[in-house]
């Protein structure tokens, strides 16, 4: 009766049968031993080897798999796994229906590990499940690789590209994001122009056509611009508002830092000038309006702040001509503002003028990529960084790749 209960609970079906069940209360462990009915012939199918048929058991080999816990007991399945010997004389091992994609786990246990790894760092999952973290990383690599095989990029036309680091200021990786489906479709090491070439090779291996890429959003990195120009001939580059604001915010910050060394009034104002007016607290806004924006003070930081506000207003233009006219007016003002950091920011924008104007046509918003990047940074923070590019890449695909793991393991969906 006990064996029959466990056969039903574990989904064990003929010709497989449970031969023995051992409870170890002291060590909180459950060991389930599985065998098969005598005289069973097992099917072996391999298209690569051109072998198909049912064969008698040649011999057996003992194997063990970690399974889902049975209440507080760690559960392990043990089986005399049959091996067969087809006509070519080579011995092949039969894979049982519960065996996972990686060595030593059942499919159900792998589905649990996958779901846990989406929500928490691998080292935390390792402690929770009492599984070596290296085994978990190997399993994750298998799942990501298998899931990516089924990716189809034939409809992708707009991409965002950006870099991030696996540790603070160390070892950069480049992400390519489908801006329509809001998912990372490729991750590669480095941030030079060859990353675009690497992307194109992978893209075309997944039914993508590089000639179909019409728009690319990126920062003003010469490497990215060179790589896109050389490898994606029909892609128009957009330098979106987010990346341009990073340049202007950096210039504003430099103006404030320099002036704060000479003017005590600017001490402790970073949190004010880092925000837009609508995001300031009532106290911050009052301090800005009643103490910092006084006409008699003529603070350089306030002038730089007004330049930033004026630049943001450009994106409210109703027509492309209006957008260009406002951009030209802003550039003229910034170039003559006598604030060197802001003048340099204006020069940067002028040097990338076509890509700045292209935004009006493409309306690409790299906020999608930044949202995904925040998920990556959160995972990186929880894990306190990643030692290897391989592991960092796995996590990026896991949390931002929207991969369909149900095609790899049908049990994954049941646990999500």
Any overview of this molecule?
This protein has 416 residues and is α/β, with parallel strands linked by helices. It has three domains: 2-145, no CATH class; 158-239 and 376-385, Nucleotidyltransferase, domain 5, CATH 3.30.420.10; 241-362. Helices cover 45% and strands 21% of the residues. It contains 17 helices and eleven strands. The chain has helices at 2-10, 107-119, 122-129, 133-149, 194-205, 222-231, 241-260, 270-273, 282-292, 300-313, 320-335, 340-351, 353-357, 359-362, 367-383, 389-400, 412-415, and strands at residues 16-24, 29-36, 41-46, 51-70, 73-84, 92-93, 158-167, 170-178, 183-189, 215-217, 236-238. The strands form two sheets. Strands 1, 2, 3, 4, 5 and 6 form a six-stranded mixed sheet that branches. The protein is elongated, with a radius of gyration of 30 Å. The mean pLDDT is 91.
List keywords for this structure.
5-stranded mixed sheet, single chain, 21% strand, 17 helices, 416 residues, Nucleotidyltransferase, domain 5
- Whole-number radius of gyration? 30 Å
The percentage helix is 40-55%
**Main β-sheet, in a few words?**
6 strands, mixed
Strand fraction: 15-25%
Coarse morphology? elongated
Which class best fits the helix and strand makeup?
alpha/beta
Low-confidence stretches: none
Number of helices: 17
Order of helices and strands: HEEEEEEHHHEEEHEHEHHHHHHHHHHH
**Number of distinct beta strands:** 11
Mean pLDDT across residues: 91
Number of domains: 3
- Cα separation of the termini: 32 Å
